[in-house]
Amino acid sequence: MRIPRRLAPVALAGLLTLAGCSGGSTTQAESGAPATPSPSATTATATETPSPSPTPTPTPEPLMPALHSQTYEQAQAELVRQEISTALLKSAAQHKDVTLPRDHDGWYVCDASPRIGSKVTATTTVTVKLAEDFSDCTTSFNGYLHQKNDPAYTPPAPKPKPVPTTQAPAPAPAPRRPRRSLSAAR
After folding, report:
1. What does the CA dihedral 54, 14, 29, 35 come to, rounded to 10 degrees?
2. Are the C-beta atoms of 67 and 109 separated by less than 8 Å?
3. Closest Cα partner for 119 from 58, 65, 174?
4. Distance between CA atoms of 68 and 111, rounded to whole angstroms?
């Protein structure tokens, strides 16, 4: 009979335990002798397979928090609180025609990736899109803050000026004389 490799140590320990118990003599409880372990029983416990050491359960990967409407500084603090490294935090302007200054801690987060609730690993890059004013987060002209900067924008044609007339104005109507009533004429 063939025993799988994983079961061999368990089978050996069980066999040694049984061999130590079946000595053919009376048990210690029957003889009234004090309970002392026999040398074979001590050997059996020494050769048992060691119990596996408890493996630490890996901490679950943090999930991407909601950063929308927070300042950049608040967003950084939230990522640290969620145990997400800010080493791979990238920031960019929300609009193509806006340049992000070096000190943008007071700018507002309009958008972030990865999406809210996504797992964030140690190698995940977190990108936030920022705007100086929070109301600018919802303003966009094909990705531009100012419509005039959008290359696809065509300004409306100017209103034509009124064409001067070459005719003389029509004469004003002549004043009417008030009518007299018949009762006043009598």
Report:
1. -50
2. yes
3. 65
4. 6
Rg, the chain, Cα only: 46
Q: What is the pTM of this model?
A: 0.55
Alpha helices (H) in 37-131, listed in sequence order: 39-46, 72-81
- Give the Cα separation of 3 and 108 in Å (integer): 66
Question: How do the pLDDT tens digits run along the chain, 186 residues long?
Answer: 555 565 566 666 666 666 665 555 455 545 555 555 555 545 545 556 666 666 777 778 899 999 999 999 999 999 999 999 999 999 999 999 999 999 999 999 999 999 999 999 999 999 999 999 999 999 999 999 999 999 999 998 998 888 777 777 778 888 887 777 666 555
The helices-and-strands tally (H runs, E runs) of the chain is 5, 3
Residue ranges in 6-71 assigned as alpha helix (H): 8-21, 28-31, 39-46
First to last CA, the chain: 149
Length of the chain: 186
Report residue 55 as tokens.
């493996």
Stretch (H or E) spanning 155: none
**Triad 117, 121, 124: Cα angle to 5°:** 90
